[in-house]
Structures are given as C-alpha cells and as structure tokens.
Design brief:
alpha+beta; about 140 residues; 3-stranded antiparallel sheet
C-alpha cells in the first residue's frame, strides 16, 4: 500500500469492521463505531506502513486489501500496537482495559497460527477485505 492509499483503506476497514466484536466490545457503544474503526485502522496501518504488510487492489481506488504478516521473532506486531497506544486510549476511553484484554486473548490465540504443521514459521494473513464494488 502506498501512503496516499492509507485514508481510503482505513475508510474501507471502518465500514467493514464497525459491527465486529473487536470494535463493538472494545470501544464505547455510544461512539460512531465506523469512525472509531477507521481511526484505529488508519493509525495501525500508518505505523505498520514501513513494513510493507498491507496490499491493496482496485482500479483507481481501494476496492480491497489484505494484510500479511511475516514470521515475527522480534514481535514487530506488538511494537506497532504499542506505537498507537495513545490514540487507542483516546478512542477507547474507559473501556481501554477491554481493548487490552481483547489483544491479549488475540495474541495467545494467534501465536498458534504462525507455525505450520512442520513447526516452521510462515507468513500469516491477518486481514482480507473487499469493498462492495470489488470483483
């Protein structure tokens, strides 16, 4: 993803994830959850942009995207989450502890998906999204 595609990709994710538990459970229900989701993903992908994890498709606009994270022995994913912590605190408000609980659960669960049956590390898809206009 190019830096100029970030806002459009974040808007797509905001529309797609505003009803997902990751957003509805960890951010205040009286928030505009599409905007919260858009800000969260925008911050995350801005912090992860130098790593080249995010790929987008579309003809003149972002119609879909995928995020692939390589084997991560130095826990770069955690570094990205830490880098956006202040913005998340603003978005989550009093529910910040739920945000931490969600990501701790995710980290415990996700660790198993990074290792193939042979025990070797592999690239892992984290997110695949297609907009309504995608083919």
């Amino acid at each position: 993803m190019r830096p100029d595609e970030l806002a459009e990709a974040a808007a797509l994710l905001g529309r797609v994830f505003d009803t997902e538990a990751m957003v509805t459970w960890t951010f205040p229900a009286d928030s505009d959850l599409a905007s919260v989701s858009e800000r969260f993903f925008g911050a995350f992908h801005r912090a992860a942009e130098p790593d080249g994890w995010v790929w987008v498709v579309g003809d003149g606009r972002v119609e879909g995207m995928a995020m692939w994270v390589p084997p991560d022995p130095h826990d770069r994913y955690a570094e990205v989450l830490a880098a956006i912590d202040d913005e998340v605190a603003e978005l989550a408000g009093v529910l910040k502890s739920r945000y931490y609980t969600f990501w701790e659960w995710w980290r415990r669960t996700d660790r198993r998906s990074h290792t193939g049956t042979s025990g070797t590390s592999r690239w892992t898809p984290k997110l695949v999204v297609a907009g309504s206009g995608a083919r």
